[in-house]
Amino acid sequence: MTYETLDAGRIARIWLDRPDAQNAQSRTLLVQLDEAFGRAEADDDVRVVILAARGKNFSAGHDLGSEEALAERTAGPRQHPSFQVNGGTRDAGAERTYLQEWHYFFANTCRWRDLRKITVAQVQGNAISAGLMLIWACDLIVASDDAKFSDVVGVRLGMPGVEYYAHPWEFGARKAKELLLTGDAIDADEAYRLGMVSKVFPRAELEDKTVEFARRIAERPTMAALLIKDSVNAASDAMGFTEALRHAFHIHQLGHAHWATANENRIPVGLPPDVPDWRTLGAPKPSRRDQP
Fold it and tell me: Which whole-number Å values give the CA distances from 240 to 108, 234, 246, in the listed order?
């Protein structure tokens, strides 16, 4: 994670900086991201925050396979794998998963959505599953012309979707069902037509054009910008957005509980064979005759 300021300090730019891992989100990265957002929020000179990513892809989602990610999910001194209940010991996998996902994946994202700055996500390449959570927490999204958006943790992973379940609000109800049931992606042009993406720029111009876009917003009066953000967010909340998010998070945890039961009471940490791993993003696809 790197942090910088531009335009005489009026624009802060936060970079996801794990390009070799396709910016897959370890919990360390999420902690650093929260600290960076907090730093920008505390800086009175900053008016707009850009969330960008190094490398070919914006983010491959949660890091499920690296040694770092597996070590982070190992029970610590306050995250015991089992605990006493009525004199007996039982597995605490579901409870541990619930609490950790609430903290790292849900509460964080909700807090970033309400950040006291205007935020702009700058997206190139793939934004997959939890990558969507990061950009949906931002006020505005701009994308390169090669950007693609998908949530493959839907039916392919046996889950209803990621923890911050904004799909019906970002895609529309029927499109959300289609994308979750198939695991298909939409491109930048379709995301623009749906209203999810504000601007589409050529890949080579994405960084400069995003700064220009952010500069236009930074020139607006700060108080007016925040009142606009609060008003629009409040309208979404009045239509049930935050309550729907909270309900969907609990449904997501039910999906984990089902996985645990189906896998001998173990929370899965790997990926089913038809879900892309961040380590294979951009690799040549096998021909159909090579596939089972």
Answer: 19, 10, 10
